[in-house]
Hints:
Layout: H1 3-19, E1 23-26, H2 29-39, E2 51-54, H3 56-59, E3 69-73, E4 79-83, H4 90-102
Antiparallel strand pairs: 1-2, 2-4, 3-4
Amino acid sequence: MSAAAAGGAELLTLVAETWEPDFGDVTDGDVLDALEDEADFGPGEPSVGRFGYLSSSRATLVPAALPGVSRTELPTGGLLPAITPPAATMEQTVQVNVRLREAGTLQPLPKPMDRSVW
């Protein structure tokens, strides 16, 4: 993991432990473009980029077998999944996000929102 990515992971962990959001991710334009183009993710839809945060409710829906994904559980019950080398190709990143969406992990919050977390 690059120094910038490691710093992003540390910042995301701090935000997740402090605010307990519904989801969060550390990503870049290339990942967002690939998610939109290859997997029909829309702007603002939950995703984990190359690494992210999932609230405790979302974390319970993460499939047990996600090759190339490391998991860090937080004291809040949330989860920090990271797509780790050598699996961290763009294709693998998209496939992990697709698997998480298919498992129900990345379902959008209802609109209008009736709660702040899933």
